[in-house]
Design a protein that fits this description.
Layout: H1 2-13, H2 21-30, H3 35-57, H4 71-90, H5 96-107, H6 116-129, H7 136-147
Helix pairs in contact: 1-3, 1-6, 3-5, 4-5, 4-6, 5-6
Length: about 150
């Protein structure tokens, strides 16, 4: 299913192209994807769309609370992905509602473990769906700037 999501994202989502479902399904079959992966991807995007609208409507802002991850989240996302999300929130690329959207959608993937690249892609989709952009070089630059700060 993840491959279908990436295919859809790279070929349609980023370019804001929205073909009808019948046309899209035919193209996905032609690209070699099977029924199960296509259906799972449609289901995932349905939930993603619903949760994106909810996150857009929720209150934005900084949170002083502590996010404690469930055992299932830690097992499925791993410390690298969770650390990536924490960094994105710390540098202002994500707010708490967007972080939760990314975690929820990553947990819906049918894989046993979600790699950081997949989490990054979901984050990018979430920000684009909310008409926000994510600049990876900008985010990495903020990280490097923090790392190069000299303490006296």
């Amino acid at each position: 299913m993840y491959e279908v999501l990436i295919y859809l994202f790279e070929n349609y989502f980023e370019a804001d192209i929205r073909p009808d479902q019948h046309t899209l399904t035919r193209e996905l079959y032609a690209a070699g994807f099977d029924d199960t992966d296509i259906k799972d991807a449609y289901d995932w995007f349905g939930v993603f769309d619903q949760r994106t609208r909810q996150a857009s409507a929720s209150m934005r802002g900084s949170s002083q609370g502590l996010r404690v991850h469930t055992a299932a989240e830690i097992k499925k996302l791993g410390s690298d992905s969770l650390g990536f999300l924490m960094l994105q929130e710390q540098i202002g690329a994500l707010d708490p509602a967007q972080r939760e959207l990314v975690i929820d959608c990553a947990m819906l993937l049918s894989t046993q473990q979600v790699q950081t690249a997949a989490v990054r892609q979901i984050m990018h989709m979430a920000l684009l769906a909310q008409n926000r952009s994510y600049s990876q070089p900008l985010a990495e630059g903020a990280l490097l700037q923090q790392a190069n700060t000299t303490l006296h």
